[in-house]
Amino acid sequence: MSITELKKFLINAKKNTYASGGENKAKVLFDGAKEYIFNKGDFKYIDRYEGHEKFEGIESVFKNNKIIWKMKYKGKVLSNKISADDIYSFLRKALKQIPNDKPFRGPKELISKEYKYTNNIEGDIEKFSGEEKIFYKNKLMYRLAYSGKSE
Hints:
Number of domains: 1
Shape: globular
């Protein structure tokens, strides 16, 4: 498996799951967790998480049913001045702009009207960590921390 192949698959999978339609597209599991699955060729992507305003989850990529990449994340909405759904709507816009070189979350920065998204990434696809934030009218409204690695 090449790193380039993994990156291309991750970008495709992420754009076609949560970023493309939010929680409405998720499968609700027996324990209340939500799950997205995306398959292409020998690759399978699974994003499974619990919660809404406060949440955590794990994304996994398998090739030929063997895990090759994993990312854990945990985040929450920090204010009730605007709805979580409004924050997540802006988040999906950012996630659709996933960088080709670091396909973990959204771009380094995205500004739209009164919203600002930032993503601070360290490392590369083999081992990485980062934190994304959403500000509304310059006030921090959302934070998510993530980390992962190739297996």
